[in-house]
Predict the structure.
Amino acid sequence: EISFIQMVYWIFTTISTVGYGDFAPTTTFSRLFIICAIIVGVYFFSTEVGNLVALHKLQSTGQGRWKPYAKGSSHVIVIGGGVRSGSSLLKSFLEEIFSSCHDNADRPLSGSLGWPDLSFMASTEQPAELREVVAALPQYARKRTKYFMGDPTRHTDMERLRMGEASIVIIITDLNASDIDQEDTSNILRALAVKQAYPHLNLRLMLQRPANKAKAVRAGIWPSRCFSINELKGSLFALSCCVRGWSTMITHCLVSEDLDEEGDDLEERSTAASEAWVADFKQGRRFDILGFVVNPAYNGTNFLSFCRDAASIGVMPIAVHMLGGLVLNPTAHELEEGEIIFAFTHVDSQLRDLEDSSRDWREEFFQIQQSAALGLKRSEWRDMRYVKSASPEGSPTRSLDGPSRSWSFRHSASRSSSSTSLTEKKPPPRFSRRPSFRHVRSNAAPYACSDDMSSAATGVTEEELDRNARLFAGEGGHYLLVILSGSPWQQIQIIMQALRGEHWPFHIPIVILAHARPTPDHLRQIFAKTPQVGFMGIGTTPHMDDLLLGGLLSARCTMLYAGNAAEA
């Protein structure tokens, strides 16, 4: 008699063709059975080994299907021309999304969802640059990162990625593309294909030119779901000139850092008394931006009172998300149920009784954004509530427009935030000319913003712009923009729009130094619509004489623009 273990041993030695011969069938029936068993076993093993090899080949070449790494983890899909290039943009993206700051294993109340599963898809094989970037990631990041080869506009490839179950789909542009308009057009088509297949999917579209962003909005992409990277960079560049430290603050709000390494290095280097600010700087870097749904106990509470309670536990509220728009520091606003608050929180602090822990602020945020993008009123998506606007008799009405005080939705398709904001309709303010400004080192006064200045001129010539530039440079206290290479007229337009926003109480003169001369279209579309601007033509390479002629020594701020990435 043969035991079960001996039988299993015999089967494996026989099917694997080892065949020691210590066990052998003796009857005719057993020999016939063994012949069939060997044929079936060899076929089965050969087939399965071939399937495993084919499966490994599919996974290595990006032809497989996505499977979650861990149960309950979020799924982020990245497509677009930027995936094929493997540029430094993807490296920064990967370092940020897999930063150690986003691991909520030790801080479950930090608001972080933890590291997600990340999937890339492009129509070509995985580029060597991207492969090197992924290989340099920590082990936990490499296990969660997959590359798939396919067309993200085809429904079959979307199903391979299980795109309908993704937390977000991000379309990244190729910053080094030779034809920027073609690159933006291709990404818009990808976004439309994804939106058509999954209308309620969370989507982010990155474009380069602001004009192409307007095309995407007209094509059906929500303004809050697409942005122009050039517009963001230009606006940040301009505002950094107006507000000192603005770019540093925004960078620290958006970029995660390893506080243990870099912070300690900064503290060790700050030995002099003049560098005592480094300690405060390091402490400020230990704050994160966090969103949460306000606790129902604070319904009807003034935002300023809520800030006092939050400050007692180390939380600094900065904005409230209302009706699809983000309102900064609404001191007179009374909080309502379900509103989302964004705040600076210390890495070791907890929200305690400030938040409604039973509700996910991300789901609430996405629902509000959807409703705002579709033009729905608050009454149509939350408990039949409605916004009260004061009528002459003081009685509430469902209308959003009233004769004495009215509210309206304003969709901005040209700004980087592009969110629907609640704005009160008031007549435009008029400002008088001020004699001085605190940061102006010369005696020149900023120019007041008035109706005459804000209205676009019928026409302007290059000679007039040159006279304006020499006048502003002589008076001082102006912004000096020096174009070092290329002819980035769209970026110039973005910078001037940021410096001529409706929120500015006055206009500070701008002097532009560039080698490329403005065309009649540039004069009509850019300079004629921008008050208090001058232009000086210079040589191919700016010289010190050109900078001095433009008022370098008396300028309020000097901006050096190096050109686009494709031209660098």
Q: What stands out?
A: Confidence is low (pLDDT under 50) at residues 105-112, 381-445, 447-458. The first helix runs from residue 4 to 15. The longest strand covers residues 315-322.
